[in-house]
What we know:
The protein is of the alpha/beta class. It has helices at residues 20-31, 44-53, 58-66, 70-73, 87-96, 130-136, 191-204, 207-210, 234-248, 252-258, and strands at residues 6-12, 38-42, 75-76, 84-85, 109-115, 120-124, 146-148, 151-155, 171-177, 216-218.
Amino acid sequence: xxxxxxxxxxxxxxxxxxxxxxxxxxxxxxxxxxxxxxxxxxxxxxxxxxxxxxxxxxxxxxxxxxxxxxxxxxxxxxxxxxxxxxxxxxxxxxxxxxxxxxxxxxxxxxxxxxxxxxxxxxxxxxxxxxxxxxxxxxxxxxxxxxxxxxxxxxxxxxxxxxxxxxxxxxxxxxxxxxxxxxxxxxxxxxxxxxxxxxxxxxxxxxxxxxxxxxxxxxxxxxxxxxxxxxxxxxxxxxxxxxxxxxxxxxxxxxxxxxx
Length: 259
């Protein structure tokens, strides 16, 4: 992380509606005068990263995304390749995001998705934008995969939930926002709950080996009390991300590093 073409990179994990915390993180960073020069995200992190890189401020992005209830995000489908589809999310992006290609964004963005055909992570940074971001957020079983150039893509968190790889040699400093601390669950009463829990555990497995790649790593433990399919909890989740980042930035060594 000593060299690189960017001063500050930001990596945003997946995590469903816990991703509202990423917008709180960005608000706190911006208030401290820290503005990422490049963003890499997956799933919810790709959605937050897209809006930020398109020039939508964190609070405005929060208001846009918070305005939709669960059924506006997700539409039921016949359960052949997924229980739900993300048509509501696509409509929100089409209505509010100006860019349609990665090259149109104001800040460079990398988005990770999982190539189901070949069993590998793919990092997109060029070409058509919205299909890639929707693919990156398509949790298996819950959401149907997205087909791009005859390849089926699903949630990037399956294989890389903290996609630092595309930017780690391009940045002098890297910030990580991870929203998937795993707490205890008492019961599992339906298929969606079981799938959600399984995916959360899977997404959390790699973080110990990756956390040392970041100069500033934000992972609020409080988020374990919130689900990943609960947009009604958006405001609390946003505040948690904001407070956790403010707390980290009270360390004068961190502020000096990023100044």
